[in-house]
Design goal:
With about 230 residues, this protein is an alpha/beta fold. The protein is built from 9 helices and 5 strands. Strands 1-2-5-3-4 form a 5-stranded mixed sheet. The radius of gyration is 16 Å and the shape is globular. The two termini are about 30 Å apart.
Amino acid sequence: MTERIYNLFNFRDLGGCRRKNGKTTKHGAIARCNVLLDASEEDIAYLKELGFTTIVDLRTEMELEKHPHQLRQHPEFTYIHAKFDNWWRDPFYGPEESAMYYMMLTLLHDNARGVLTAIADAESGVVFNCHAGKDRTGITAALCLLIAGAEDRDIIDDYAKTYTAYWGDRPREEMEGKKLIPVPENMEMFLAMFRARYGTVEEYCRIIGLPREKMLAIRRKLTGEG
């Protein structure tokens, strides 16, 4: 990927993750990003070139009003607002993130179902975002990768890449007190908590009322398999 300007700094494709059957997830189907506020024409053309022309915005109405998504009314993109409200993000940075992600999925069934439905129904490559592309985006990416049968290590690694996106190669010991520091162990803890309650992602999707065909549509996007 060529060097990107500010607004695509936390963009990454969910393709290339190892799956438990020995295969990998497909590129060009589902990607994650931070919100686009002032992207260059080059950045927008780059998304179009990759085929990511459906935008799923996970932010709250207040965030949308304060920071309108640049592509919300772009004629060549389909914009979908599917709120995955993360009320706790300001006070919760650190070990509590595992509980925050767990509570999001446990309490926000309608929101989770709406987000996954929007991704499943996308007619093009789909990129989802919250504001920074870390928490709400991170948990959505984890769900999609679980549906695809990805290895836990690759789900955790994908989450951790936000560190480099924000801080480059700065040592973690210099980051005390900084926000937006993804701690890999937090995602590992979340996956353990998720399985302890729901067992499988298929069971979670059933509980939140996501039709099985929607879950399978996400799986097909990322694997080519039903």
